[in-house]
Structures
1.
Amino acid sequence: MKILVFVKQVADTEARITITNNGRSLEVENKYALNFFDEFAIEEALRIKERLKDVEVVVCSYGPKRSIEALRTAIAMGADRAVLIDSKDLDTDDPLITAKILSGFAKGDGFDMILCGKQAIDDENATIGPMVAEMLHIPHVGLVTKIETPEGGEVRVDRDIEGGRQTVKVKLPCLLIVQKGINEPRVPLITGVMKAMKANIPVLDPATYGIDVNSCTKEEAKVKVVRYESPGGRPPVKFIEGATAEEKAKRLIKVLKEEARVL
Amino acid sequence: MAKDIFVFIEGKDEGVRKSSIELLSKAKGITKNHNSTTYGILIGPKSEEMVDTVRPYPDKLIVVRGDGLDEYRWDTYTPILERLIKTYRPFLFLGPSTITGKDLFPRLAARLGAAYISDATGIEFEGEEALVKKAMFGGKIISWMGINEKDCALVTFRPNSFSIDRPSGMAEVIEEMGDGKSEEAITVLETKKTMEKKVDLQEADFIICGGRGMKGPEQFGIIEEIASLMEGRVGASRAVVDAKWRDYEDQIGKSGKTVSPKLYIGCGVSGALHHTMGMDTSKVIVAINKDPNAPIFQYADYGIVDDLFDVLPALKEELKKLKEQAG
Ligand SMILES: Cc1cc2nc3c(=O)[nH]c(=O)nc-3n(C[C@H](O)[C@H](O)[C@H](O)COP(=O)(O)OP(=O)(O)OC[C@H]3O[C@@H](n4cnc5c(N)ncnc54)[C@H](O)[C@@H]3O)c2cc1C
């Protein structure tokens, strides 16, 4: 069995992000990490491998060269191999293009199951899973919180639905979108880190596996950022004064009613 | 192309999700300016009440009926929506950024090969061009996205992005038939509804959030009481969820939910970046913390520096009085 995991390298939560070029571009401090939700996807693939033994875990990312570091983290955790699809200057705001490139890779490389995290914490799109599944004509299941060992060409999973939880059975091949709570991602051991440092991670050009790159250019993007803004910061906090807690509570209600008008 | 807008109407329990009504209000404001039509799209309504609740808001309401359509599934809803979009050719299809919206819209966008923007918080027009507002990097950056699409573009919006206008009519209802037969690839084995009837955290207008300063699970009683008094919801910081004082579904922040209620009250929450990422688009933020230097005060509109165990009972009494006055 072959499990493909799609991951993204993203700016760390702590990274400083500055708007430059009159709102037309962003400068991200050089602090990147493997996307938080993707760690759960890698971990889950590894756990299936540990149970089923005869499983290959392949991790793939579409992104700039620096993303290789995120792929090394995946190898250090225990993935069998990793592949980077170089986005070069094609880097896009349009998730359809990313999905097209990833699904093209999946088609060429082959898979029984695809895992990905529920959303990237940089663009916060949460779009790639269902898009890739649609392009590959396979079923997807979102917000998965438990994956049982695949058996007889099927897998049972639990997932969150609106106001509840559901257990479903899905035929393979399928795409599962995992979220926090499904597992505790392992911290790579030193031997894993050593292996990752030496690992050969091929860098692919999408054109080499049959993607029509002309349809993936910035001009072809159907959505693009026109400008960036900083969020309008709030005015400084107004502390509600009073001799006692009761008095403060009373005054708070008054300002919420009369000044903020939210009550 | 006529600038008609489709709005996906999402059900909740036996009723209609508030964010769908918000979107209808917003869409109608846009189509009024373009002399075009706002369509509500309601698939497999569970009750006729649902139809009646929605009808005052759009210009027209398309109701799709068919066996098996009462529960959302992407494999049944996607082909129906694909057909409707190709028939009516709206220029925008709006939906709520809920579990359902996030599952359905990207799948549909890929099927149509259509432009898609997810989790937006606003939309404005510069001439003919729609610009969609979206928070990135946990709210550290706002981006305005342009749409380069001749056909229908899809956008999902966070609940509470728009206010609801007073309805002004009664939409004509267009009945359509749909096929509710699902693909065999996915079989539902069991469904457990855990929080029926309660307003969703992401849709709540009022959230009172407890942090580690609450000291223990038994202390959340008063927060529960305030939340139910205000018809809102209880939220929690990760510290509280990790300590198992509250369930994960209450967690607000980077690894929990993103909320933007009208009023957020944080009690004993320090205001770590991972937490504020999930709530800093709230309209009004109140923080109660005994430490005047707690970072949450950098995000709050109003602050009370005091012991929360003294403040909360008084706050509850004041809110009760307010509710009684309002009758
Ligand atoms: C990858 C990652 C993801 C994370 N995701 C999230 C997330 O989604 N959501 C989240 O919330 N956190 C998240 N965190 C954790 C976050 O960084 C903080 O640790 C957490 O938010 C702290 O919770 P807290 O404010 O409840 O507790 P604390 O930081 O311990 O704060 C408690 C506060 O209560 C006050 N207090 C104590 N007693 C009283 C009293 N009697 N009266 C008044 N005030 C009192 C204290 O002054 C203090 O400010 C994440 C962290 C990481 C590393």
2.
Amino acid sequence: MRFLDLLTMSVNNLRRRKLRTALTVLGVIIGVASVVIMVSLGIGLNALMLEQYASYGDMTTVTVYSNSYYGGSDSENPEAEFLTDEVIKQFERLDHVESVSPMLSTYVIMKQGAYETNVSITGVSREYLEKIPLAEGQVPEGDEMKLIYGNMIIQRFRNSKTGAGYWDTGELADIDYMNKPMFVIFDVNAYYQSQGGGENQTKPPKKYMINAAGVVEGGITDYNNYCYSVYTDVESLKTMLKQIFKKNPIPDQPTNKKGKPYPYFIYEQAIVFVDDMANVTDVQQTLIDMGYQADSQMQWIEQSQQTYDMIQLVLGGIGAISLFVAAIGIANTMMMSIYERTKEIGVIKVLGCDMGNIRNMFLIESGFIGFMGGVIGLIISFTVSYIMNNYLGIGQIMMGVEGDISRIPLWLAASAIGFAILVGMVAGFFPSLRAMKLSPLAAIRNE
Amino acid sequence: MDEVKVPDTRESVALRERIPIIEVKNLYKIYRVGETKVYALGGVDFTMYKGEFCAIVGPSGSGKSTLLNMLAGLEKPSKGEIIIDKVHIEKMKENELVAFRRARVGFIFQSYNLLKTLNAVENVALPLSFRGMPRRKRNEIAKKYLKLVGLEKQMNHMANAMSGGQQQRVGIARALAVKPRIIFADEPTGNLDSKTTMEILKLMKRIVREQNQTLVMVTHDNHLASFADRQFHIVDGKIFKIEECHHEEEEEIK
Ligand SMILES: Nc1ncnc2c1ncn2[C@@H]1O[C@H](COP(=O)(O)OP(=O)(O)OP(=O)(O)O)[C@@H](O)[C@H]1O
Ligand SMILES: [Mg+2]
């Protein structure tokens, strides 16, 4: 028998008992809608959480620290664990690592006009700089040292005469990053000594005039990953530091046991960029195995994700119960229908309808009930989801973040319909076997 | 007249060559009802030939339907052999039996058994659809056979919008449309009045004769049975006698 003929027969049979079909389909609609809505809530919650984490920082990065840098290591030769250019290259060769940026911080004093502040300048790689979203300016070209200012840094400047800052007066410092140079004092100790007064007053250290390259995107109160730092190209920072301190120890750089500086730069951190979120944990573990401390957002996310998986499971389970009830409804309807059509089934069997065709006819019938329920249930799910997202603001209430609490991705929609058809067919399977095995003699008997 | 001669010669050819199409050997059907055994058939032997019109006659409860059902593969015999078209059907599995019926057998029911949701054409085309024939082709054939049984005007009627006689004509068209070698009919006129009965009977006989098909009809009416080429009389599950009829009344039927 042709599939089209089978389908026509099945659909005709369903149309014969419209009310009963409609009621059975209604069961499936409720089942599918509750599963889809529940799962969409789970997905929504999870996505909201991820978005929240993403706002705290990049999720594909691993931050690496060295135990030795802070003197925390009790190993015999701490040099082996320092983060040096050598080690950075080694990291870059790891699988799934896209690039590695060292982080070299130096504590400076910045002055412009009447304002000054103490702040760290962080030297990072070019790739790192390129990832920073800028409100104005661009990543510096060439060897000259230029600064990128975090959008909240301006809060830290205070009037050097009164000592009052933004937090005291509520007035922002009158700083123009882009058009006026910043005067930067690198040798902070020497500066304080020169300010001390009295006999051992020394000559104040040299101020350097450094131009800005850009300002990070965002208002002065908008928190982001880059808002509180001042960045520059690590190479230009290294050149600058060498030029300033010459053979003297550079502040914040570790010294050996004899108190002598090392002939190379030691970074306090390195940022490892991983190609995909899924590989972050692996890379992090590799780095830990190499003897470094490594942190990533992923480790927190994974924990929360487990919690959300549980929530998802519970929500999905609640929905699944109603789908299960719907499946029983389908099975019941099919049994009824077969019972009513015993004679008809007998007749087509006498006329030579293949047993497999009879079974398939009923499977298509129950599958079709599932299909209709799936489609309508999905439409209802989308409607409910839309209402929840746009009118109720549940996301705001539950998570405190803007965003859709209920999300129905394509895979969920497609698998909901697929699953509804499957449920229909599974529910119709035993009834259809029964129909297949009905005796053709039923057709002969006259009732 | 030519018309009279043509079936006569065919019949005589068939009788002369006598190609066996149904062979039954030592056939038993025993039903168990509680402790007792009911011998619905108690050892039946006979042969039916190609192109024959056979009637199975006997009183109520004699085992006629049981015999027919086993010949059509609807029931399994308790013992014995049934060879149809040189194939043993008593050992076949159910799906093989279905395939066997689909390929070789037409069936006419006493209670017509049309599908209520389908119209006349679709009902006749139904067994063709089981063979996987495309819709247009099978509807064409169905219409041809509906014309043959005289239902040009009722082609698009739903099954229960027709009289009993009309429904049975549809039933006949349905049995014939698949061009079966054998047509089984269990009291095909049992629910019809005597005038319609004669019409239906003549119709069946004419078409089957024209297409050289074998018709096996169960009836408890001796008069109807007398239209057959041979009558198999059954009493208490045994063949009581086989009677050959010579058809001078052939002309009367026409
Ligand atoms: N399923 C069954 N279980 C037990 N006994 C049965 C069964 N089917 C038929 N019989 C018995 O077998 C015998 C033959 O029955 P069958 O239906 O063949 O009679 P029949 O000749 O067709 O009668 P009728 O002319 O009334 O239709 C009867 O005695 C009947 O009681
Ligand atoms: Mg009977």
